[in-house]
Amino acid sequence: MQSMKNNISKFTSASKIQLDEVNRILRAATVEPLDENTVLRAALDHHLLQNGSQSRAQLTLSAAKALGLSHNNQIHLAAAVECLHNASLVQDDLQDEDTQRRGQEAVWSRFGSNVAINLTDLMIATSFVLLAQMDNQSCLPALLTCMQRAIAVTLQGQSRDLCDKGATRAIKTSLAVAESKSGPLFALCLELPLITADKFSSLSTAQQAGNFFGAGYQVLDDIHDAENDQATENSANVVVVFSEVLSAKDAYCEAQTVARHYLARAQQLAESLPDNCAALLVQYCSMLTQQLEESEQ
Amino acid sequence: MQSMKNNISKFTSASKIQLDEVNRILRAATVEPLDENTVLRAALDHHLLQNGSQSRAQLTLSAAKALGLSHNNQIHLAAAVECLHNASLVQDDLQDEDTQRRGQEAVWSRFGSNVAINLTDLMIATSFVLLAQMDNQSCLPALLTCMQRAIAVTLQGQSRDLCDKGATRAIKTSLAVAESKSGPLFALCLELPLITADKFSSLSTAQQAGNFFGAGYQVLDDIHDAENDQATENSANVVVVFSEVLSAKDAYCEAQTVARHYLARAQQLAESLPDNCAALLVQYCSMLTQQLEESEQ
């Protein structure tokens, strides 16, 4: 998936200065209550050494800007989403036992499982506090509720995925897991700015757009990892699930069709959102669809 | 520590009806975004089957009532604190590898580590959402910031404790860990109602009272567990640390002196808080001090 992530990060609508500001306030809010020279601070700084694609921060900044939100609100919404995403990465690596993240040692591998668990907790809590630092407070309850919902649905997908690991999985279940695993956090990049701009009627469209994009992104990831996952019989991979009833070649084709469908739906919904606020998501959809077509040739 | 916890729960200032209401809205807010029949929901319901002492919910209800907060605010503040406490229990059991909680199987032991980790995340997020459901919203940013700080300091103490396990520990470090492990969440029971009542000038006293009470509570716990912890050379236990430089009997005496000191300080500070809002904490201090005296005879 590295190539896709690298490609995504090229669509930099946000300036490097803005992304640096997002990282700065994310870190500041996380370490604010901590003592110097503690293991939790060291683990955070280790994890933040490499930025990753920051695609979620960029989606959020882009939507918030299009909707006319203040600079302070743009930055804080992006930092909240990015902080939550980082929490999910630290936890995913632990739960999937991946020892590498962004070209360096994963937090759990370097500092132990307990520190990874604790850092995740802290970053989740900090995501909420970053919302509390916004200019206008009237929408704060709706923002918090939206964020908790996204966290809950992601954790539900994650729990289902981890508990079923190794078990034979129905295609329907497999796609439901793909939808809920990264969709809700992508949706959040649009939902939080829309709530702040008082555009509640667009929320369900934004949520669906994010879920479909997340599912497309996940299935593409599965296509990329299919060879490895076939070898380890990882039934969390959609291609592996398809190949139980189809030939290897047909399983790939079917997964590609599904991914294309998800991305097309996401793009269509994203285009319908107000003030062209999901323009960057539309670009991501095009780019991934193009990558899919190239892989089919 | 069972006897102390049982004793604490006897000081029921809150009615059973109120505590039931706290539990009901805590559960409702947690499961609201989840589908039926999911493992995360099953794990939550399993954990909530037994209530525990609910001493934190009681402290919060009692403080909120004394400060004249609305019924809705009393209940939601107590639910937020109790939800966070439950998150910490699920995580503590996993990290300490304790297989039993409240007379039944611990979540991680029954549903696996990953579900325990995910449930903790969800309950932390829900604690913030419960604050968002309060009547007046003007104090919401301050409430969120206060809660994140308490979480951060607790995690910092927990990380220090888990990373140092087995290592020889200085008495000073050992007491610092005791202070930060449960103190911040006890302090929260007073801080959140004080913030809602707009009594910001009392916050630092409330924080210190909570920290000292938490430390006293922790050292008493250590005295209770000393025999087991001596056998396993668990240097997280203050008595074990003292016994490295003192005779076994003197180590006990020293730990008792320290516990008495902490509880006296907590009581003194709690008594100075406005509207007698920490009256229940004062009662807890007296009760634990009395228990200490009985154990000395």
Description of the structure:
Two copies of one chain form a homodimer. In chain A, a hairpin with a 2-residue loop joins strand 1 (100-101) and strand 2. In chain A, strands 1-2 form a two-stranded antiparallel sheet. In chain A, 76% of the residues lie in helices and 1% in strands. Chain A is built from 13 helices and two strands; from the N terminus they run αααααββαααααααα. With 297 residues, chain A is an all-alpha fold. Chain A has one domain (2-296): Farnesyl Diphosphate Synthase, CATH 1.10.600.10. Chains A and B meet through helix 5, helix 7 and helix 8 of A and helix 5, helix 7 and helix 8 of B.
CATH class of chain A: Mainly Alpha
Structural class of chain A: mainly alpha
Low-confidence spans of chain A: none
Run of helices and strands of chain A: HHHHHEEHHHHHHHH
Which strand order does the major sheet of chain A show? 1-2
Oligomeric state of shown chains: homodimer
The biggest sheet of chain A, with number of strands, parallel, antiparallel or mixed sense and barrel status, is: 2 strands, antiparallel
Number of strands of chain A: 2
**What Rg of chain A is obtained from the alpha carbons, in whole angstroms?**
19 Å
Q: How much of the residues of chain A is beta strand, in percent? A: under 5%
The CATH architecture term of chain A is Orthogonal Bundle
Q: Overall mean pLDDT score of chain A?
A: 90
Greatest interface and its participating residue counts: A-B, 48 and 49 residues
The coarse silhouette of chain A is globular
CATH topology heading of chain A: Farnesyl Diphosphate Synthase
Instruction: Identify the CATH homologous superfamily of chain A.
Output: Farnesyl Diphosphate Synthase
Question: Percent range for helical residues of chain A?
Answer: over 70%
Instruction: Provide a count of the helices of chain A.
Output: 13
End-to-end Cα distance of chain A: 18 Å
Number of domains of chain A: 1
